[in-house]
Amino acid sequence: MKLRHVGLISTSGPTAFQTNHIKTNNRGPEMNSLKKKYRLWHCLALAFILPAIGLITMTQAVAADDSVACTDCHDDKQGAQYVHSPAGEGECLVCHEPEPAHLEEGGPGGMETNRTASACAQCHDDMAGGSTIHPALEMDGECIQCHNPHGSSFEKFLVTSANSLCLECHDPVATGAATGSQHLPVTDERGCLNCHNPHSSNQAALLTASPKALCLGCHNQEISTQEGDRTTHIKNIQETMELEYLHEPAADEGGCTTCHAPHGSQHKKLLTASFPEKNYYSSQSGIDSDTNTFELCFNCHDQAMLNQDISAADTGFRNDTLQDGSVVRRNLHRFHVVNTVEGRSCNICHDPHGASQPHNLRSTWTMKKIEPTLLFQSRPDGGECLKSCHRPKQYRRLD
Ligand code: HEC
Ligand code: HEC
Ligand code: HEC
Ligand code: HEC
Ligand code: HEC
Ligand code: HEC
Ligand code: HEC
Ligand code: HEC
Ligand code: HEC
Ligand code: HEC
């Protein structure tokens, strides 16, 4: 075979990639800096390497175009749906270094291929700019585990679709993404990339934003999803987070994930522990050992609030009376919550995120498709509740 492959460095120059292969993607500044780097690389190449091989080039006196030589025999490196510009432009030698024998006879061998990130770093940032770096970037093969250096049928030259790429290494069971109820963004088109940066991040767990900003970035509106003929409405949490009385863990920066598993959970609403699915249910004790009904709340709050016999410290939601000189306490938490016929979930009175009335008390809840109102009046020694369906009720504490 005639050695046409003489200018081992392409002399097509920095303008080579200003062709229709380049998807500028409105990424002005980023792409410009990429182009600058690219040009710089070329300048260096032209300044130092070309003179060295110039001799060969001259003696061969054949038009210099390495892409022709390589693609003569490898015609499959430029045909992908999305072609990586250096491959498309025939800049094979930015990553490959052939011995002349390879070009003459072809065949395996006679070829040095830079499979490391240093090849990519000629033109790209090292992608490890954040304080948390994805360990995948330090594994053998580095960038090419996820990117095909030549091109691919997936955007960003990914080796497989965005939502299955991560599962090549991550077990969906280990992340909880395959348990019980799933969080829709985990499996949609962008999948993990909805929340994680594949390279590095200044947030823990490679998150694209602080956990709370991340959640509220999508839950700043009502979300309706359709499954068959069943429509589910997920309420706007951002709106709730603007109310006056926030539940402390929800107000906390890392808070959403203390109660919700971001990928999936065996409990409804992605909860990290059990909590009644319905507002009304039956309960012997409120903490039935088989379902551990309110485990979520009692991970932090004291279960004693539901006891028959309580001290003043157990709950403020009680009505005290004096009988024969001693204080008799009626536990109103127990009265409402523990009920074999119709127990009421904490959720009826309290919003776990935030609410407009003290003690995170809601102003309304859902009861068989109607939405009664609840007006709460706090008092130094108790409170008064006015529900749209009942007379006002008061409770009083004696100490
Ligand atoms: C950005 C760097 C880069 C560019 C540009 C590049 N390659 Fe590659 N190429 C690689 C890497 C890295 C591998 C090894 C992949 C692996 O081990 O999985 C490779 C593998 C190959 C292989 C063997 C495996 C296969 O996929 O068939 C051939 C052949 C090849 N390249 C040809 C070319 C040709 C021809 C060009 C120019 C049109 C080119 N490459 C441009 C980085 C590059
Ligand atoms: C005369 C034909 C021919 C030319 C020209 C040629 N190759 Fe190859 N190359 C082959 C054959 C044949 C193989 C072995 C089969 C295979 O892997 O596709 C091969 C294998 C490779 C491999 C994988 C094997 C290895 O040892 O790493 C790479 C990478 C590669 N070529 C890159 C290039 C690049 C880059 C150029 C241009 C600088 C080039 N080849 C020019 C024929 C050629
Ligand atoms: C010679 C310079 C050069 C080298 C070396 C290079 N790239 Fe690129 N890369 C570019 C240019 C120019 C673009 C923009 C045009 C395009 O999309 O092809 C680009 C685009 C990309 C994109 C898509 C960017 C986007 O925002 O759409 C990815 C991903 C990428 N390169 C990965 C790699 C990886 C991985 C390597 C190393 C195996 C590598 N590149 C090596 C020049 C280079
Ligand atoms: C674990 C898989 C993985 C590894 C390893 C990886 N990338 Fe990426 N990379 C991606 C994914 C996924 C995207 C698409 C991101 C998106 O669409 O938000 C991407 C996007 C890019 C882009 C486009 C610009 C951007 O930031 O979105 C460039 C350039 C890039 N990668 C280069 C590299 C380089 C260079 C390396 C090695 C240092 C590398 N990647 C390693 C998965 C990976
Ligand atoms: C080539 C294998 C590989 C691929 C592909 C891969 N990862 Fe990883 N990833 C790892 C390894 C190894 C670790 C460290 C061990 C662990 O946490 O499982 C890790 C850790 C992580 C972590 C935890 C980081 C931390 O600091 O807590 C996140 C988040 C992550 N990967 C997300 C992703 C996402 C998103 C993708 C797809 C874009 C992806 N990974 C693709 C290998 C991979
Ligand atoms: C809705 C946003 C979201 C999506 C989508 C998402 N994650 Fe996460 N991921 C998180 C959050 C938030 C954390 C941090 C959890 C914490 O701090 O408790 C996390 C943590 C992780 C961790 C660190 C270890 C752990 O389990 O806590 C890994 C690994 C991980 N995610 C992988 C993935 C993979 C793989 C996908 C895609 C299948 C994915 N994530 C999709 C939000 C998400
Ligand atoms: C990329 C957008 C996006 C992000 C980010 C996001 N979510 Fe979601 N979330 C959704 C969508 C869409 C649904 C509706 C899913 C459905 O109906 O199956 C949903 C549903 C939920 C549900 C109700 C699940 C059910 O079974 O009804 C909870 C709880 C939830 N998200 C919590 C969170 C938390 C906590 C975070 C932050 C770690 C978060 N979300 C981040 C899009 C997002
Ligand atoms: C103290 C525990 C707790 C914290 C902290 C918490 N949640 Fe919730 N969340 C719940 C419970 C319990 C439910 C189910 C009852 C309900 O729908 O109000 C729920 C329901 C949801 C729903 C589904 C609402 C619907 O209409 O189905 C979304 C979305 C949600 N939470 C997002 C968030 C976000 C975002 C954060 C952080 C700002 C957060 N949660 C913090 C306990 C919590
Ligand atoms: C991660 C820990 C945690 C979890 C889980 C939790 N809380 Fe809280 N809760 C707190 C903290 C901390 C406060 C603020 C200090 C206090 O008042 O005890 C608080 C305060 C409250 C208040 C307001 C008390 C007042 O008098 O103003 C109510 C009501 C409440 N929580 C109900 C619930 C309910 C209902 C659940 C279950 C859905 C729950 N909490 C789950 C930590 C938690
Ligand atoms: C019928 C409405 C109602 C239900 C149901 C209810 N609470 Fe309350 N809760 C209240 C009221 C009213 C207060 C305010 C008591 C006061 O005046 O200090 C309160 C106060 C609290 C407090 C502050 C400490 C205390 O006990 O005074 C916590 C914590 C709390 N509730 C948690 C829960 C949990 C957990 C559940 C479910 C197991 C629940 N509540 C069910 C009405 C309710």
What does this structure look like?
By secondary structure, the chain is of the alpha+beta class. The termini are far apart. Strands 17-18-19 form a three-stranded antiparallel beta sheet, with no helix packed on it. It has three domains: 14-120, no CATH class; 160-235, no CATH class; 280-396, no CATH class. 20% of the residues are buried. Mean pLDDT is 82; it is low at 1-67. The chain is elongated, with a radius of gyration of 33 Å. The protein is built from 14 helices and 19 strands. The chain binds heme C (10 copies). One heme C is lined by residues 212, 215-216, 219, 234-235, 237, 241, 247, 249-250, 255-256, 258-260, 269, 271, 275, 296, 347, 352-353.
Percent range of helical residues: 10-25%
What Rg, in angstroms, do the CA atoms define?
33 Å
Enumerate the strands of the largest sheet in spatial order, edge to edge or round the barrel. 17-18-19
> Any idea how many domains?
3
Overall spatial form = elongated
Number of strands: 19
- What is the mean predicted local confidence, pLDDT? 82
The helix-and-strand class reads alpha+beta
- Bin the strand percentage: 15-25%
Q: Main sheet, how many strands, which sense, barrel? A: 3 strands, antiparallel
Which ligands occur here?
heme C
The number of helical elements comes to 14
